[in-house]
Structures are given as C-alpha cells and as structure tokens.
Please model this.
Amino acid sequence: MPDSTPVSTFDLVGRPVHRLGYGAMQLAGPGVFGPPKDRDAAIAVLREAVASGVDHIDTSDFYGPHITNQLIREALHPYRDDLVIVTKLGAVRGEDGAWLPAMEPEDLRRGVHDNLRNLGLDVLDVVNVRSMGNIHSPAEGSIEKQVTALAELQREGLVRHIGLSNVTAAQIAEAQGIAEIVCIQNHYNLVHREDDTLIEELASQGIAYVPFFPLGGFTPIQSSVLSTVAQTIGATPMQVALAWLLHRSPNILLIPGTSTLTHLRENLAAAQLNLSDAVLAELDVIGEAGGGH
Model:
C-alpha cells in the first residue's frame, strides 16, 4: 500500500497551526515542581522549538508552579505573531508539590491573572478549564460554574478562546451551551484509546483534539509491536507513536514535551514520518489488544 502523509496544519484559533507543537510541562523540575536542573538548556529547547516551526505551545502556571511560564517569557518574549500559547486552569500546587484542585470562579480568575503576569501577556490565546476528575481520566459532573466564570473573563478581554481538559462528551455539550469551545485536551495515545468516538465527533465540528500523555506520560508506551514496527521503518518507537496520532485524525494536535534538544528534534521529525496502511493496521492492533505488551 502507498505511504500516507497526514495534513500538516489544523485551525485552532481561526488560523492554521502546525499539528506537532510543544508541551512545556517537562521544563520544570522533577515531579513538575521547582526549577529545571539546567535553565539554559530549557531556554534553548524553547527557542529551537519555535525556530523549527512550532507555533503551538502548551503550558500552565501550575507547572513549577510559575516556572514554565517564566521560562517561556524569558526565552520567547516578545512573542511571534503566529505563536499560539495555550494554558490551563484547575489546580494549584501545595508546598510539597501536591496537585490541589482550584476550580472555584475566584480560583480561575486568579489563575488567569497569574498566567498573564508570568507569560508577560495582556490577553491569553486559549485557556483550558481542566476538570481534575480522576486525575488522568474524566469523571462526570457539571462544569457549568467553571465555564461560565471563564466566559466572563473572555467578555472582559482577558481570554480569547476557551478549551476543556479531562472531560466527557456530556461536559463538552454542557460547556458548548455556554461558550464556543475550540479544543479538547484529554488522555489519549496509541494504547489509551477511550476517546476514539469523541475524536470523530469533534473532527466533524472542526474542534481540535489535543492528547495529553501522547507518549504514555510518566510511564512511556512499551509494546513489542511498536518496537518492531519502528525498527522496520528506521524510526524510534516514540516517533512512530507520534506519527500514528498524526495519521489518526486531522483534528489531532500534538504537544509532546521534553527538556532536551535531542528529544525535541526526534519528536519534531515524527511529523515527516509516513506510515503505510499496512503499518497503521498493525499499530491499530496495539490499542485493541490493550497495549501489546
């Protein structure tokens, strides 16, 4: 079968962004807490990402906390006109690094101002309301109060666009009754595929789907099938996992994170990786088999 090349851009905020972006979470210290072990390296990664064509950066002021946004500002401010910075609200960090829910309207307002200050912006491009749910999977429950609070901040001119993270289809529908939703950020990758149907529904609406933990998160995807495929086509397993996501649906935007230039370059190269129909079929079995371990 012929190789297939996924489309390279998707409209996120009324303009096309490259589908392979960058997630800033790993720029903070261990456990996404405290400063990086090598600040200069973190700055270099951000600058090379943008120089390489990345125009979609995902961050949050609770990474560090404050650390990643301050690094982004130091590395990239004043920002290029075509750079879309997406941030998220819904948590704060305890003194011990614990992730604490912060979902009240006053928490969200404070979070918007924290992001604005640390990024050096007057308005945020996109703000995702992150439902804490079951940490890495959503739990049903109304998010009307949170979306209404963010919509008010949007009317005040502090937020341009609203997204959601760690949410269910019912919560998305509820939110859409309050404000336009431009992106959904949920847990999804080659192995973890509970959102297959949701991705199709969002694609039909022109809404971006942004997988968090696209490479498995703190426990990278391990699969003998993936490793074999990667070896056969001369790529790394993680490059193949990213390329599979790009082929999966045209509305998927990727934000793999890294704190090293080597891994950044490997991740970005995945956008050039063409997967044949036969390879895609082989990889699809991983999800059906629950991981192919």
In short: The mean pLDDT is 93. The two ends are 27 Å apart (CA to CA). The domain at 12-219+250-258 is CATH 3.20.20.100 (TIM Barrel).
